[in-house]
Amino acid sequence: MYQLDDKFLDDLGLGGLPEEQKQPFLQHIYNELELRVGTRLSDGLTDEQLDEFEAIIDHKDEVVNPWVQQHIPDYAQHEAFARLVEELKIPADSPHAKAEYAATRWLELNRPNYRQVVNETLEELKREIVSNRDTILGAQA
């Protein structure tokens, strides 16, 4: 999907940020992206859907387990699940892995355009950063 790392900063012309400021700035970008995407994805969802998704991303077993059983009982055999486990570097049998995969599948079922929303939002954020690059770099000096 996307990597918020030194290459990302280089691509935006911000590779010259001091090393001690790169991680906090990347974290700020991640937080802002998460907020904007969440706001856009929640638009049009019911309160019940929002509550269910929140419980899934909060790894509440009492919601995750029945949801997985109903919607993806064979999740452990999915290639996408194996990729997620590898990417996150977590054991496949961990509740964390199940909940993370459930969150992804929940979005695919309830907001099938979520990847497009993430990409569009990231591109918008990148344009904002580039248009403010001189200010950002100047503030770091």
What does this structure look like?
This protein is an all-alpha fold. The protein folds into two domains: 1-45 and 113-141, no CATH class; 46-110, no CATH class. The protein is 74% helix and 0% strand. The protein has eight helices and no strands. The chain has helices at residues 6-11, 19-42, 47-57, 61-71, 79-88, 95-110, 114-131, 133-140. Helix 2 (19-42) packs across helix 7 and helix 3 runs antiparallel to helix 6.
Derived structural class: mainly alpha
Work out the count of structural domains. Answer: 2
Give the overall average pLDDT: 93
The counted number of beta strands is 0
Helix content: over 70%
Poorly predicted tracts of residues: none
What layout of secondary structure does this protein have?
Blueprint (H helix, E strand, L loop, with lengths): L5 H6 L7 H24 L4 H11 L3 H11 L7 H10 L6 H16 L3 H18 L1 H8 L1
Helix pairs in contact: 2-7, 3-6, 4-6, 5-6
Question: Which short descriptors sum up this protein?
Answer:
141 residues; mainly alpha; 0% strand
Short characterization:
The chain is built from eight helices and no strands. By secondary structure, the chain is mainly alpha-helical.
